[in-house]
Amino acid sequence: MSAVSVRRVFKTYGHTPILENVDLDIDEGQFCAIVGASGCGKSTFLRMLLAQEMPSAGEIRIDGQPPAREPGPDRGVVFQRYSVFPHLSVRRNLLLPMEFGGSRLLGRLFGPRRQELEREADRVLERIGLAHMADAWPSQLSGGMQQRLAIAQALALKPKVLLLDEPFGALDPGTRKSMHEFLLDLWRETGMTIFMVSHDLSEAFTLANRVLVFDKRRWDPHDPTAFGATVTYDFKLTEKDWEKPDVPAFGPPDAPQPAAG
Ligand SMILES: Nc1ncnc2c1ncn2[C@@H]1O[C@H](COP(=O)(O)OP(=O)(O)OP(=O)(O)O)[C@@H](O)[C@H]1O
Questions:
Q1: Which residues form the ABC transporter domain (predicted)?
Q2: Ligand 1 in reach of 198 Cβ (< 6 A)
Q3: Residue 181 Cα, ligand 1 centroid: separation in angstroms?
Q4: Using one digit for the tens of pLDDT, what is the confidence trace for 164-212?
Q5: Residue 34: which domain range?
Q6: What does 111-159 look like in DSSP terms, one character per residue?
Q7: Span 151-158, average pLDDT
């Protein structure tokens, strides 16, 4: 059974089709990058995996079940804009999901298990270059630092499915590279299934082992909103073809091309 199955999913807002006939099987442990033109429905697709939106038609299954409406350790999520708790220190921000993961019924943990988690949190903070800020408030961190913390927070739960919506967009190139390595290490360690929306093709092809291109198959020049997007290319990469393949430019197939000069 696929970890995630998407069967003939359509999504419409009002009368406007956004996605049409998306049909996918994602294996457990696959790292799927989702790329496509702005506004083609990539975030909408992620929101359907989170059950924040329902398909207008078709169905989505995660481990054979419809995606749960409640957030839980089965799915972690990171959005482009960092979303950490402003009233908790950096260390507490990281400990909170760890405690939640380790003690779902009992609430806060105490004793040796808690000390173990604190040591684990400190190791992660060291790893993401925030050890010196462990006792600071999020407001004292730069945007890039806050995003690193948000990513580490989502990963702390070791979710089965991780959903990333442009998670590295706001990071400087050096930080971005070290967060790429951090994510890849955790992916290899945990074998979680990852969906990552990215506008950066090289990032998509460097990190993921499957790249889904969302685009419109049909295009009405008189009404650009007449048709929704679907998966037009599905690149399954092996270690050997980790190099970026020749990917066509995004855009509707029959859209007028900009005039040269
Ligand atoms: N709640 C909503 N109600 C109505 N229209 C919406 C809603 N959410 C998204 N849309 C529209 O659906 C389309 C797809 O939006 P979405 O954010 O999924 O695109 P995207 O591919 O993630 O874009 P970007 O790359 O720019 O982030 C857009 O035209 C957007 O305006």
A1: 4-241
A2: no
A3: 30
A4: 998 888 788 888 888 888 889 888 888 889 999 999 999 999 999 999 9
A5: 2-74+159-236
A6: HHHHHHHHHHHHHHHHHTT-GGGTTS-GGGS-HHHHHHHHHHHHHHT--
A7: 79
